[in-house]
Each structure stands twice: as structure tokens, then as C-alpha cells.
Design brief:
The complex is a heterodimer of chains A (480) and B (996). Chain A is an alpha/beta fold and 480 residues long. Chain A is built from 11 helices and 16 strands. Chain A starts with 21 loop residues before the first helix and ends in a 15-residue tail after the last strand. Classes of the chains: A alpha/beta (480), B alpha+beta (996).
Chain lengths: 480, 996
């Protein structure tokens, strides 16, 4: 590799009291990301952060199935007027299912919200009440209108399987703020995993420890946290003691070995994690008022409310990146945002599940002072067409995929709040002003976390890979 | 660090050499010093179709003419030259100005008249501080070096040791002493088999005093079937083998395991490496009737496949998905066999290696016929010949019985002919292309033309398409009287009912799958299977009547000259062809016209029926010479009839054997591609020049031109590619594989980036050894076992792993091999070893894998989710290689030990230690169950005596007996808490998981 020397001339690690070289210890701790000169091949990237971060942690709410921009955050008065008319264009729209119906006005009324006057529809009434926290980008565009490659790109910058996702990159670059909790935690929709399952939180070519750790609401919050078969407490202790003695003897015989010492230490960390994880998952330690705030007492919001509350507790305790999924696979009956047939029913149902919890999360983070150094991302893989998916002379009820323009928002640290950046055309079809690609979005997110997107790299197959491939421009206009 | 070093070296060189050597005649030597400087500092921007500022500095003419701002170079007058002005005031290069020496060189050159050398400058010729040129080390021919002489002549068993010791001596390092026998055997077993030796094997080896005791163990390991299991895993890592499609649907590939088995077998049989690779690239072409060779092409389609993307409505997006897929395939081929990152040149010339964008597209053209899919495995002639023979005998007997009756009936029929069925549409080409019955008139396309009583199609462009169907068509019959220009043609359609875009069709097709045979063609072969009928021998000199009947229940039957042809079969059909959206075409399998879909021959008459004709009706239509079995039977005596029925029964049984739907394999399903173009910026919407299949020119000594036209058959392209890659004088091909072997034996390759021998990759720690090994491999018939043997019997490999502080100060990473680095077991070895010591390893190798995941079909979609199941179940206790390796369904225990994501190539594995790994080992159901099984085994083998149990446990887990303090501690734990407490600790222990 270009800047890797053939022979490792670096200083030896200091050999600490515990018998573990400091670099080996550092590479073992979940807390730290890239360690300078770490012994793991490829992990010789620039240590992060590269500059003072605005945000220390992030939560990503990932809407699966494509949320409509024209029904939510992208107010288009022209679309109201053009309802029932044909799209004015010389080009034939190349839509996913091939049908181009007439234009349809939003199914929810738009109003200006909060002190900022941000336009939002009535689909998200609770979120509208915290509109002043939001930084909306209305000019996103995607490279494909195929859900899963678009979802991969939303998360990893690439349309293909096998690339590390944002959370994995952050785990690699920054690690966790805590010794006891993983850096990257995933909370899937309780109804179903998104299509592709674990591919969505893959470490790709990064070491396996950067894969997202799935946290569940029931049973062991994470896999293998406690013995899968009953083991008496005394036996458990006896095994640990015996193991520790055997490992220390083995290490002593070999004189010195960082990997062996690290492995001994990993069992101590594991024990701490066994205490930390159940504690973080114990939602009953929250007040009744908090439960109500997140909607845990309402059937339609209980699922996502629990996920949001869990996410807040994880962030509070030092997890770097929590990713929540809203939506499962693309099947029938619909259980994600893919409103081909009936937008009113589909988006109505999905929004009801998340509106109150997401608003509660923002409010809660704000009141705890966490929004000052936490980043909240609310994204979807692409948008939906302003015209309906129906015969050419009909205003249908559903909308098809739209890769050319859609909306996402961010909230929290380092952002200008209550603004909307960029614009689509008159009817909300194509992004035309300040067009924003995922690479730009990712570059900006990394920037807020103190990372220069061109300097967070991992050598793989002939190239220092980046989250932003060879692209990415900081969206300066939205930075505070 | 390195680039700065090269930079300063270059400056020093320029300063030293400029006045003397390189200034000959009128000024500095252009090719030697000026062109490299321009290449390195200017040409990144100032070349190509759209050079920055309009200034192209690669050619004399354009360099002198200058760019948008006018003349750049005025020979003899540097101060009047814009080039010099910009460089001198450091406007250019924009980010980092030239050094004083570089500036002075440029000035001197212009002052001396700016003499030009080779025109244009080839920016890839020169290796600079920023990129590799043709002179790059890995691209040079392999020359077998002599083993160096070493001071300590006692050290060393084979030339490998001389190379290793030579470097150690140069750094004043000493190798470690030999490892003890137990350690050595454990190392060897894990390395070659992925399993630990049994206590008995260790004891035997420790007591074996014969001089070749070790060599005999090496041979035994190399002959073990487990060798292939271990080494196949390495290969599958590199080729990113997965058993599901990935992307949205992530469908299971139930027949992908055959490729895995093929790899295991190839390793075990020590298949020559060049052959191993040739078959993976083009086995189906090289040996068309060989099931194994076809299976080998599973390599080409081992990666992910985007079902939704490849079938979406948007043609533009479909092309992008296909180009992404090709990039993945080309990338894997380049990295796996050549250590070249060719795929980095998809959008532009390679930024670091001498690979042009057009070369990426040549490689793409070579592989553009590769498509994912399932194919039936050809049955071997060995199985088929006896069946054919038996059939011939039966047919003879039948004919003896039938002939007298047949003549009688036919003579009766002459007086009373059978009524022919009435078609729904009929074209006899006597009055143009008019449908005499149904109004589905046709139109000529391409070079199709009408001749006296027939339609002539040329196999290149000619066909006929009719008006759209007026009624939906479900069950149907197509028949045609046709003669063929030749019997060698493959895939031409006689007549076809298709959707207007050609996406869905049912057709009478000649010779597509099986040479010379008639078949029912369909889109993607979804309703096609071989009739296994006889090979056509007459249609080239007379018209034959061919009819295919698609029944309501999906059964498809074929007839030739009114008699049943081959064996009918039940398809997934029937396909409904919608009125208005469908049509009939003649001379074409389906639209669009191209590839092998066109027929060369003459159609005399074509008829379509909107129902399935009976055998008798077909016979009647064909001319009434056919008799169905019942008619014949009715004219036989009772005794004859019984015999006749038995005979027919036996005949159909034999036919069934011939056409048995054979086993399937996930392998390449090639499709003749459209002519390939270079795509500007990699964008399918911006095709540029046409390219034909070819290799990379920078590889020294090989001709990159395959001598193929742009429309060459796809099989030929892959064949040439395979030949080009596997040539013995391809320096990369041999170097890359010997480096991989070294990498797996020592933990780090001689080049530490096994997939990348380019500029961004590592430099060899022992370049001569690398070449020596490469040459040795080629000289020994590409046999990998020969190299294994050399490596594992070397003293370097047999060293102890002891730590040495002084040595580590010089070479902390142990690249010089002053010891054998200890290694943690890889994920599969962890699981296999646990099974092995617990006495639960299921010894069954080969065949479909085991599923430690549950397939959940998401409602209303083809998508599959894979959820983990309790992995301690008995039927799952086979070697981990046989785990069904889906992309969306991972195994957390294996993941915790750095098992790679099957979606991406993993030339080397990370080795990490995390608390999650500790949790998985402590708490996973599999490990806990195995700790119990291990305890039960100890009771079985050592009885109730705790000391004996502990002793046995140490022997099984570590291959040694416990020291007194160890035994004491273990005994106490077992007495107080029971055996599983102890066995669980053993399985978690470092000594179990690390190999010295």
C-alpha cells in the first residue's frame, strides 16, 4: 500500500501494568475507532476526529419504501392547481412500473409551522409542532428508482451489496463513547426486517466488529448476551475464573503477546457489557410521563415509541450511531412506505406509527440538552411521483417511485434549524435547485461528526475506499 | 511517506544527471527526463478528449500549439513560453509547484529548442511517484532466480529457506529454532486441514524416529479429503461465493453448492491451477458435454444478482444495473487471477496502474455473455449410450409388429382420408404474406423475401412479423413445413408467438440448446426442456413438417412429419398471449432480431391453432401417414396387442430415462451480447467507440488483442480470455497464486495485498522468492500440492513461534520471518475444532449444505429473509464449509470471528478481538451444547475418574497433558461444579483458539 511501510518501524506499544500493550487495548475497546498505527491491517487511516466535531453521536431514522415528498415536506402550490392535469413535459417519465397517470394534489393540507414558518403537511402533526428543529433538504436525488439498491446507496454510498454502511464507517472511525456498548446499534421495524436483512447493516469489507448490532425489544436485547442454556451462577463464575487462570498461565508461558492479552481483556469487557445492555434496555426505568410522550401507551405508536426511547437511552450511554428502520420488505399487504396503490391509507398508517415518537424524541433530546451534540437524520431511499400510478387519463390513488427529487431532514447539532434547502420543479418531480446526492449528504453528516469525508478511508482491493466514493460536496448552506 | 521519498529521489536524480548524461546534443533527453516530468506533473489534466484549458501536452503538435490561451511553448525562448511562465510563477501545477530542479530542467529543455521524442507521450510508459507504468515490477516477466548463498549453510532444507535466511542475515536477525513436534503437527493440521490432530496422531508423531516422519504426515494431510475442504474456503473467500442473490429478493440458490463441491474436488485432485482457472472462466465452452466443467463456471456467477433491477421496466436503469454487475464480474476476474484492479478503469483510465478505460471495456466485452441462472447438468454419454441401444432394439420390435398393420390401414385411408383440422391462421406464401384464415397478415423485415411457394429467411436480418392477435391465446398448436440452409445453425426460430417486445414467447426453435434438435423455445427457457428427440438429418434437403402443441395443462408435445418427436414434458405453462399485445413472427425466435435468434432456411407453410391438436390431428395435418398407437392396436390380435402394449410401455420408460429432467446447477447461462462500446464516464447512456474482447496491454509479453471481431460469439471470447489469463508466461497469473498460498500458510503474503499487485498494493517483501515460487509452480505443471509441500517442509515454516524482543525491534511485523507468527483460528476452524473435540463432527462431505438459518418468505413478495435457528441441532454438525452461505443470513458466532461478508471479495481476513466475540463464545447455544457433549465424551472415554477426565480433555483440546498446577485447578473446578464448567472454559481458552 502506498503509505504503508514494508517494515513496521513504529515505536513499540507501551506494556501496561495489565500486561496489555496500549495499542492492542485501544483497538479492543469499543470506545475507540481508528487507532494510529493500530496493528490491524488497513486500519492506518487518519485518526478521527479530524477537527472539532459539532455532534458526538447520531440517530438515523430510515423510512423504507420511499416517503412522498409532495405529501410531506415539499410544498407545491402549483401541484394543487394542476390536480387532474397531465404532467407538462416533452419527455416521457421513465417510472418504475411504467404507468404515468395525471397529477395528484397532496392528500394532506400544507401549512407553515412554528416560528420559522417551515412548510409541512398535516401528515405529521406532532412533528410539525417541532418544525423549528428541522433542517429539510428538498432537493435530494437518487441514482436508481429500485428500492433496495437505493436503500443500499442511502446507507453505504453504493448501489451494490458488500459496502460498509454509515454506521459501520462511524464505528470504524470513531468507535463507541462507551466501553460497554457497541458503537453501531440497529433497531429494525418490529414487524419485519427490511429487504436484504443483515446486508443493510453490513460491515462490508471493514472488519466484522463494525457490523451493526441488532437490538430487540424482547428476550435478550442482543444476541448471546446471556447463556442460551441455563447455567447456575456459581458455575458461570467458576468457568470465568478457570478460564482467566488458564489464559494468564498461557500468556505467561509465551512471554508476550498483544492478541492473547487483548483476548483476556475482552472477557472483562464482555462482563461489563452484560450489565450495561439490560440496563439500557430497561424502559420501565423511564417515567410515566416519558412513556406517554413517546406514545408507549397507544397501540399505533407503542412499537416505534419503544424503539425511539431505546435509541435515546443508547445514545445517552455512549453508543455512537443508532439506526431505526420504519418499514419491512416490499410485499403485500404493505408494511412500509411503498404507497403504489393508495397513498392515503399507506402513508396515513405508516406516519401514525412514527409521528408522535419521532417528535417526542426531538423534544426529549432537546430538553435533556442532548440535541446540542446529537445529530438526528430522517431519510428515505427516494421519493414518489407527483403524478399517480394509473392509466394516462386517470387520477389514481397511488404514486410510483421517484428518483429525481425527494425530501429528507436533519436535526440537532451544527445545523441551521427551521430551514428548507434546495428545491424541486413546480410540481415537485425533479430536484432543480441545489441538487443533493447521497454523497453530499454523507459528506455533511461526517463533517458534523468531525470527520473529513476524504480522510476516512480503508484500503480494499486497490483503492482507499470512502463512504463518499470519489465524490461528495459539503452542504455548507445548512451548517450553522 | 513513500511518494515523498520517490519525489525527493527523483529530484536528486535530476540534479545529479541533468548536466552530464541526459543532456545530449541539443538539450535534455526528452524521453528519459522531460516526458517523465510531464507525465507525472502535468498529464493528469492536460491530456485526453477534453484536456484542461484546451492544452494537450501529450503530443508535440498540440503542446506547441497551446490551449485556450494560445501558444504554450516557443522553442528556444522559455521567457516567451506560457508553459514556462505558468510553471515559473507557480500558477501550475495548481496544488504543488515544481521543485527548483524540475523547473530548471523544463527551462533548459525549452531553451535548447524543446526537442520532442516519442510522440505522443504514452503516460503509462513511465512509473512515477504517483502511478505505475509498464515498468511496474509485477508486470515484468518472471525470471527464475538462483537461490542466494547463505552464511549459515546448515539452515535450510530447500531454496525457500535460502531466500528467507538471506534477508534475515542482511538485517542481522536469526531464525528461531524448530518448533516441537506437537506444535508442528498442530500447525500443519490446522493449516492444511482446518482441524486439530487427535491425541493419538500427536503421540504417534512424537514417537516416530524415522527421518521422513514429518514428510509422511505432510503427504497424509495432502491426501486427506479435508485438505480440499480447508483450501476451498480460501478460494470461496476470494470469489465472494454466496448461495443467495442478495439485493431485495435475496433468493436462495439451491444448486450453487455444486460449485463448492467442484472446488473442493479440484483441490483434492490437485488439478493443475491453469486448468482450474480455465474451467471456471469457460468450462462450458471448452467441454460442452462435461457436467464438471459446466459446474466450474459457477465462479462467474458467484456474486450477487439484482433480480428486481434486471427485470425492471426502465430499459435505461436496466442497463445501469447490468453494467454494475459486469463491473463486479470483471473486477473479480482481474483481482482473483491477475491481482489487477481493472474495474477501477470503468469511468476513466486507471488512476494508479497502466490500464486504459478501453481495456476495461475489452475485458467487459470478453465477459459480456455471462448471465446468472440455472442450467441442467448434461447427462454423460456413459449413462445415455445403453439407453439409446435398448431403445433402438425396442423400436425394431415395434416396427416388426406394426408394419403389416400400417400398410393395411394406410391403404384403407387412401380411399377414406382423415379430415385435416382447421387452423385459426394459415400462411402458405402463395399470395404474399396474407393469412388465408384469420387476418393476421405479415410484413417482411430485413432481408427476408418471398420465393416461389415459400418465404426465404437468411439467418442474419430477415424475418416476418404479423398483425397483433385478435383473440387471447392459451392452449395452442404451431406447425410449419420448413427446410433449413444447414443443420449446424443454432437457435433460429421457425415460428413464434410473442409479446410485441419479444419479452415473452413460445416458439418452434432449431438447435438452440442441443445441436440439431427441435425444441419448444421460450423466454429464459422457462417453459423449455429438451424433447431429447433424434438429431435432424434431412431438413437440409427436403421440407419437413414440425409441429409443437402447447396443452392447457402445461404439457408440451412435439411432432416431426406427423409422428411424435422425442418425449413430451410438463412445463410451468401455459402462457397466455393477450390479444392486441401479441403477434406471430416467422424466421425469428423472438424480437429484437439479432444474435442467434434468426433462422436460415425456407418456410413453405405455417399454421396456427387456438387449441392443442391431438396426435391424430397433427398426423392428419402432416399428411395422414401417422397412425396413433390405439389405431394400430385395434388391428392386432389379442396376443399381439398385449405384447404391443408392453413394448410401448417399455419404450416410453426408456424415453423418460433419456429426457429425465436432470439435476441443475447455478452456473453461467451465456447469452450472446450486443456489440460492446466504451461508455463515457461509465455511463450506458453515452456509448462511444465499439470494442471487441481483449486483455490488458501492460502485462509484459502477452498480446492483449484476442483477434476477435466485436460480434464474436461470446463463448469464443471467454475461451480466449481464459487462454490469455492462464498462459505460462503471464507473470501475474503465477505470482498471484503463489502469493496466495504463502499468505494462507504464513498469515501475510510476500505481497501483503493478495488481490492487488498494482501501485496501491504492497511491495513484495521477498521479490526473488516470489518469482522463484512462481517459476517453480509453472515448471511443475501448475500443481499446488507441490508448492504446499515445499512450503510446509521448509525450515522457515517449521520454526518455533517464540517471541524475541531484539528481533521484534528490527521487524515487529515479522515480515522477514524470524519466527513463525502465532495465529488465531479462523471462524470455520473455531467451529469445526469445537465439533471435533466434542466428538460431534459429522464426517459427511460434499452435497447440499446445512441450513443454520430459517427461510422466511415475506408475505406477498419474492423476498426471503434468513433468520438464525438453534445451531446445535444434530443435522447441522458438518464442517462449516457446508453451511448454506446466504448473503442476508449471517451466523453471529462466525461473524464474531471475522467471517467475511459473502457480498465482497475477501483476499485476507481481519483478525479482531472484541467483547462481542467473547459473549458469542461464552453464551451461544452451539458452544454451550458442545461443552456438554465434550463433557459426555470425557466420561465415555475416561470413565468417572476426574484426573483421567482432565488429562483426556487437555489431550483432546490442546494435544498435551496438563501440568500439575493445571490439573489441580481443573480437578477442583470439576469436583465442585461438574465437567461442563471445565469444558466450556477449555473451548473459550486462548490455547484452544491460537496456533503457535
Amino acid at each position: 500500500m502506498a503509505d504503508k511501510e514494508l517494515f513496521d518501524r513504529r515505536e513499540f506499544f507501551s506494556w501496561t501494568r495489565t500486561g496489555l500493550g496500549s495499542a492492542a487495548l485501544a483497538s479492543l475497546l469499543l470506545r475507540d475507532g481508528i487507532v494510529q498505527g493500530a496493528a490491524v491491517p488497513g486500519e492506518a487511516s487518519d485518526p478521527c476526529p479530524h477537527f472539532k466535531p459539532r455532534a458526538r453521536r447520531a440517530i438515523h431514522i430510515c423510512l423504507v419504501g420511499a416517503m412522498s415528498q409532495v405529501d410531506t415536506f415539499d410544498y407545491k402550490p402549483d401541484l394543487l392547481r394542476a390536480h387532474g392535469k397531465a404532467l407538462k413535459t416533452t419527455e416521457r417519465p421513465d417510472v418504475f412500473f411504467g404507468q404515468v397517470g395525471l397529477l395528484r394534489k397532496p392528500d394532506w393540507e400544507f401549512r407553515q409551522r412554528g416560528a420559522s414558518g417551515l412548510w409541512m403537511s398535516a401528515l405529521f402533526p406532532h412533528l410539525a409542532s417541532v418544525a423549528d428543529e428541522l433542517t429539510v433538504i428538498r432537493s435530494m436525488y437518487a441514482e436508481t428508482s429500485n428500492h433496495t439498491p437505493a436503500t443500499f446507496q442511502q446507507n453505504s454510498g453504493f448501489r451494490l451489496n458488500g459496502f460498509p454502511v454509515l454506521g459501520a464507517w462511524l464505528s470504524y472511525g470513531l468507535g463507541s463513547e462507551s466501553d460497554n456498548l457497541p458503537a453501531f446499534v440497529v433497531i429494525p421495524d418490529v414487524r419485519e426486517y427490511p429487504a436484504g436483512g443483515a446486508i443493510n447493516w453490513s460491515n462490508g469489507f471493514l472488519p466484522g466488529r463494525h457490523q451493526g448490532v441488532v437490538l430487540r425489544g424482547k428476550g435478550d436485547p442482543i444476541d448471546d448476551l446471556t447463556p442460551a442454556l441455563p447455567v447456575a451462577a456459581a458455575s458461570e463464575r467458576a468457568t470465568r475464573d478457570l478460564l482467566d487462570a488458564m489464559n494468564h498461565r498461557h500468556l505467561t508461558e509465551r512471554g508476550r503477546s498483544d492478541p492473547l492479552a487483548a483476548r483476556i481483556h475482552s472477557y472483562q469487557l464482555a462482563a461489563k457489557m452484560q450489565l450495561a445492555v439490560p440496563e439500557v434496555a430497561a424502559l420501565n426505568r423511564e417515567t410515566a410521563a416519558t412513556h406517554t410522550l413517546y406514545g408507549l401507551d397507544r397501540p399505533e405508536t407503542a412499537d416505534f415509541g419503544r424503539s425511539c426511547l431505546l435509541a435515546r437511552r443508547l445514545l445517552e450511554r455512549g453508543v455512537r450511531f443508532v439506526q431505526l428502520f420504519s418499514g419491512g420488505t416490499f410485499g403485500s399487504p404493505r408494511r412500509n412506505w411503498d404507497g403504489h396503490e393508495d397513498m392515503m391509507r399507506n402513508h396515513g398508517r405508516e406516519a401514525r406509527r412514527i409521528d408522535r415518537p419521532v417528535a417526542a424524541l426531538l423534544r426529549d433530546l432537546r430538553q435533556r440538552g442532548m440535541l446540542d451534540d446529537t445529530l438526528v437524520l430522517f431519510t428515505t431511499e427516494f421519493g414518489r411521483t407527483p403524478f399517480t400510478q394509473s392509466a394516462a387519463n386517470v387520477v389514481g390513488k397511488g404514486r410510483d417511485h421517484n428518483q429525481y427529487g425527494f425530501s429528507v431532514w436533519l436535526a440537532g447539532a451544527g445545523l441551521k434549524h427551521g430551514i428548507a434547502h434546495g428545491a424541486t420543479d413546480e410540481v415537485g418531480w425533479k430536484a432543480v435547485e441545489n441538487r443533493t446526492h447521497w454523497h453530499d449528504f454523507h459528506a455533511t453528516v461526517l463533517h458534523l461528526l468531525g470527520i473529513h469525508h476524504e480522510r476516512l478511508t480503508y484500503y480494499h482491493n486497490g483503492i482507499k475506499r470512502r463512504l463518499t466514493n470519489v465524490h461528495g460536496t459539503l452542504i455548507k448552506e445548512i451548517l450553522a | 511517506m513513500k511518494s515523498r521519498f520517490v519525489q525527493s529521489m527523483m529530484t536528486v536524480l535530476l540534479l545529479l544527471l541533468a548536466p552530464s548524461v541526459l543532456l545530449h546534443g541539443a538539450g535534455p533527453d526528452f524521453d528519459k527526463v522531460v516526458a517523465p516530468l510531464l507525465s507525472e506533473r502535468c498529464l493528469d489534466c492536460h491530456r485526453g478528449a477534453k484536456p484542461k484549458g484546451g492544452l494537450d501536452l501529450t503530443r508535440r503538435r498540440t503542446a506547441m500549439a497551446g490551449g485556450d490561451q494560445g501558444g504554450a511553448i516557443v522553442p528556444g525562448k522559455p521567457d516567451d513560453s506560457l508553459l514556462w511562465q505558468y510553471v515559473n510563477d507557480e500558477t501550475m501545477p495548481p496544488k504543488k509547484p515544481l521543485s527548483a530542479a524540475e523547473k530548471s530542467l523544463l527551462r533548459t529543455w525549452i531553451a535548447a529548442g524543446a526537442a520532442w521524442g516519442t510522440d505522443p507521450i504514452d503516460p503509462f510508459r513511465i512509473t512515477t511517484a504517483k502511478r505505475a507504468g509498464y515498468s511496474w515490477w509485477a508486470l515484468q516477466p518472471v525470471v527464475k532466480p538462483k537461490a542466494p548463498s547463505i552464511k549459515d549453510a546448515r539452515w535450510g532444507r530447500n531454496p525457500i529457506d535460502a531466500f528467507i535466511l538471506n534477508k534475515l542475515e542482511a538485517r542481522k536477525l536469526h531464525p528461531s529454532g524448530p518448533a516441537d513436534r506437537r506444535t508442528l503437527l498442530r500447525r500443519l493440521f490446522f493449516d492444511l486441514l482446518g482441524l486439530p490432530p487427535t491425541p493419538e496422531e500427536i503421540a504417534e508423531f512424537e514417537q516416530d524416529s524415522s527421518p521422513d516422519a514429518y514428510e509422511r504426515r505432510v503427504n497424509r494431510c495432502l491426501q486427506s479429503p479435508h485438505y480440499g475442504v480447508r483450501w476451498a474456503r480460501h478460494w470461496l473467500d476470494v470469489v465472494r461465493f454466496g448461495e443467495s442473490n442478495g439485493f431485495e429478493f435475496d433468493e436462495l440458490r439451491p444448486n450453487a453448492w455444486r460449485y463448492r463441491d467442484w472446488v473442493v474436488k479440484a483441490f483434492n485432485q490437485d488439478m493443475p491451477y491453469d486448468e482450474f482457472v480455465r474451467l471456471q472462466l469457460a468450462g462450458d465452452v471448452l467441454r460442452p458435454d462435461d457436467a464438471e466443467a459446466l459446474t466450474a463456471t459457477g465462479f462467474l456467477v458467484a456474486g450477487a444478482y439484482d433480480t428486481v433491477g434486471q427485470t425492471q421496466q426502465s430499459a435505461a436503469m436496466k442497463r445501469v444495473v447490468r453494467q454494475d454487475e459486469l463491473e463486479d464480474i470483471v473486477g473479480t476476474v482481474g483481482q482473483t487471477f491477475l491481482g489487477l484492479t481493472i474495474h477501477c478503469a470503468r469511468c476513466h483510465d486507471h488512476k494508479f496502474d497502466p490500464i486504459r478505460q478501453v481495456e476495461y471495456y475489452r475485458m467487459t466485452a470478453a465477459l459480456a455473455g455471462v448471465r446468472h441462472g440455472e442450467r441442467p447438468l448434461p447427462l454423460g454419454e456413459k449413462q445415455l449410450a445403453p439407453v439409446r441401444q435398448r431403445l433402438a432394439e425396442l423400436e425394431k420390435q415395434r416396427s416388426v409388429l406394426e408394419s403389416p398393420v400400417r400398410e393395411r390401414i394406410l391403404s384403407e385411408r387412401k380411399t377414406n382420408p382423415l379430415p385435416a383440422p382447421r387452423p385459426t391462421a394459415q400462411w402458405d406464401f402463395t399470395s404474399g404474406l396474407r393469412d388465408r384464415i384469420g387476418g393476421l397478415d405479415g410484413t417482411l423485415h430485413g432481408d427476408a423475401r418471398l420465393i416461389a411457394h415459400g418465404l426465404k429467411v437468411d439467418g442474419k436480418s430477415g424475418y416476418v412479423a404479423t398483425l397483433p392477435l385478435k383473440h387471447d391465446l392459451k392452449a395452442k398448436t404451431l406447425e410449419a413445413w420448413v427446410s433449413l440452409d444447414n443443420l449446424q445453425q443454432r437457435g433460429g426460430g421457425i415460428v413464434s408467438v410473442q409479446t410485441k417486445d419479444g419479452a415473452v414467447f413460445d416458439a418452434i426453435v432449431f438447435g438452440e440448446r442441443d445441436a440439431g434438435q427441435w425444441m419448444a423455445g421460450s423466454n429464459g427457457f422457462v417453459r423449455s426442456r429438451s424433447f431429447a428427440g433424434p438429431v435432424e438429418t434431412e431438413a437440409n434437403h427436403r421440407p419437413v413438417h414440425v409441429a409443437i402443441v402447447w396443452q392447457e395443462d402445461g404439457t408440451i408435445r412435439a411432432y416431426r412429419d406427423g409422428r411424435p418427436y422425442g418425449t413430451p414434458y410438463k412445463s410451468s405453462g401455459p402462457q397466455v398471449f393477450k390479444a392486441e399485445q401479441s403477434q406471430v413472427v416467422f424466421g425469428l425466435r423472438h424480437a429484437p432480431a439479432g444474435g442467434n435468434r434468426l433462422l436460415a432456411g425456407v418456410l413453405r407453410r405455417v399454421q396456427l391453432y387456438d387449441r392443442a391438436l391431438s396426435a391424430t390431428e397433427v398426423a392428419a395435418s402432416a399428411g395422414g401417414s401417422f397412425l396413433d398407437a390405439e389405431t394400430v392396436a385395434g388391428h392386432l390380435t389379442e396376443e399381439q396387442r398385449a405384447h404391443y402394449r408392453k413394448l410401448l410401455d417399455e419404450i416410453s420408460k426408456q424415453h423418460a430415462l433419456l429426457s429425465r429432467p436432470s439435476a441443475k446447477v447455478h452456473a453461467v447461462v451465456p447469452r450472446q451480447p450486443e456489440v460492446a462500446h466504451l461508455l463515457l464516464r461509465g455511463n450506458p447512456a453515452q456509448p462511444a467507440e465499439v470494442v471487441s474482447a481483449g486483455g490488458v496491454a501492460a502485462v509484459a509479453g502477452l498480446k492483449a488483442d484476442f483477434g476477435l471481431s466485436a460480434d464474436a460469439p461470446e463463448g469464443e471470447r471467454r475461451k480466449r480470455l481464459a487462454a490469455w489469463i492462464t498462459r505460462p508466461d503471464n507473470p501475474l497469473f503465477a505470482r498471484v497464486i503463489v502469493n496466495r498460498l504463502w499468505h494462507y500458510h504464513f498469515g501475510v503474503g510476500l505481497v501483503d495485498t493478495p488481490n492487488d499487485f498494482g501501485f496501491n498494493g504492497g511491495r513484495p517483501s521477498h521479490p526473488e522468492l516470489l518469482d522463484w515460487l512462481a517459476a517453480e509452480l509453472v515448471e511443475n505443471g501448475w500443481r499446488l500440492k507441490h508448492l504446499h509441500r515445499l512450503i510446509v517442509t521448509s525450515v522457515a515454516y517449521r520454526q518455533a513461534s517464540s517471541w524475541s524482543e531484539p528481533a521484534a525491534r528490527v521487524d515487529a511485523g515479522n515480515r522477514l520471518l524470524w519466527r513463525k507468527s502465532p495465529r488465531r483460528l479462523e471462524a470455520e476452524m473455531v467451529r469445526d475444532s469445537i465439533l471435533h473435540v466434542a466428538g460431534r463432527l459429522d464426517p459427511r462431505l460434499n452435497g447440499p449444505g446445512f441450513q443454520d438459518i430459517r427461510l422466511v418468505r415475506a408475505p406477498g413478495t419474492a423476498a426471503i429473509l434468513y433468520l438464525p435457528v438453534d445451531s446445535a441441532k444434530d443435522e447441522l454438525q458438518r464442517r462449516t464449509l457446508y453451511r448454506v452461505w446466504t448473503r442476508g443470513g449471517r451466523n453471529r458466532l462466525l461473524d464474531a470471528f471475522d467471517c467475511p461478508d459473502p457480498s465482497t471479495t475477501a483476499p485476507s481476513r481481519a483478525m479482531t478481538t472484541t467483547p462481542l466475540q467473547a459473549l458469542a463464545m461464552l453464551n451461544n447455544a452451539f458452544v454451550l451444547h458442545m461443552a456438554q457433549h465434550f463433557a459426555q465424551r470425557l466420561q465415555r472415554e475416561a470413565g468417572e475418574d476426574v484426573d483421567r477426565q482432565v488429562r483426556r480433555a487437555y489431550l483432546l483440546a490442546y494435544g498435551r497433558t496438563p501440568a500439575k498446577d493445571e490439573a489441580d485447578r481443573a480437578r477442583q473446578a470439576v469436583r465442585q461444579h461438574g465437567l461442563p464448567v471445565f469444558t466450556r472454559a477449555l473451548l473459550n481458552s486462548n490455547e484452544f483458539l491460537y496456533v503457535d
